[in-house]
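Methods — Computational structure assignment.
A single polypeptide chain was analysed. Its primary sequence is given first, followed by the predicted tertiary structure written as structure tokens.
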Amino acid sequence: MPEQLPADLFGRRDQDRAVRVLDAVASARLRWTTIINRRDLSPRADDHRLPLVVTGRRIEAHDQDVVSLRLESPDAQELPLWHPGAHLDLELPSGRLRQYSLCGDPADSRAYRIAVRRIPDGGGGSVEVHDELPVGSRIMVRGPRNAFPFAVPGHGSPATRLHFIAGGIGITPILPMARLAMRLGIEWSMVYTGRSRDTIPFLDEIARFGERATVRTDDEFGFPDAATLLAGVTGDTAVYCCGPVPMNAAVAAAVREMPGVELHSERFSPPPIVDGVRFEIEFASTGAVVEVPADKSALETILESRPDRPYSCRQGFCRTCKVRVLSGEPEHRETVLTAAEHEAGEMLVCVSRSRGGRLVLDL
């Protein structure tokens, strides 16, 4: 990302190197750039807004709760390149900003594909995508950008094989990675989990991977443990995991005990608050003061009073929730803001907190 590389799950900051791998795909016009330096992923570089139109919709799961959208340029122009693991920020009709992984083919320069699971009791973004973006809808997006970069074995990664773990809609960033591994002839395997076959999307595409991919549903086999998810993984393997927080946490804990295994992970929801303390926030515009409990984020508390405040990733990398601190000392728990931005008093309220005492925010 920007000035400082973000830490991985275990606090290391040098895992993903700036190495580029070119894969000539016979039928494609594009060369693959698969190792991304995280400095290239800064939201400062993708603040541009790109108008797109929905040119296709498809139900991707039998329970009809997952829909994929095909997005193209209104004037049929080629779209900016992207790399496996990348996502788009969608500016929804309501004004909400939501992030969705690109799950199509980077070799298709004319279209992006995203897939969204409907979550009726969520933040409203998924329902809006399902109900208010029919074919023909025009929408502004930001990106693509990548917070889950893919490192090809032998080119920036010491691993010699790959193992993918996907839970439900977590298959979306994994699909392009698996396709690229297939094209490059890399040894890889996959475990794809979900509640039932009716609820998990892209089963038809997974079937094309053959025996490399194992589909394991909870209703057939019970909830999988880490040993099941990591079956066959050895010290020369890079693991890519995307899914619910409990699954990610179990895999991370197990990999800590597996010397030589790399872990790259993306989560659906905010990280847990560690060592949080209670503090207060004052809204500069009104003087109103709210209390942030030790186990809640500043963003959660702000939204209770200001539900129209923009936010997106809730994990400290998209910058949507950035606010200026007018008084007080913030405790920065992100890795994307520069030293200059910290000095200017900028703060990401989705993850960062107070070092003690009240913060007066420019709200």
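Note: The first strand starts at residue 49 and ends at 59.
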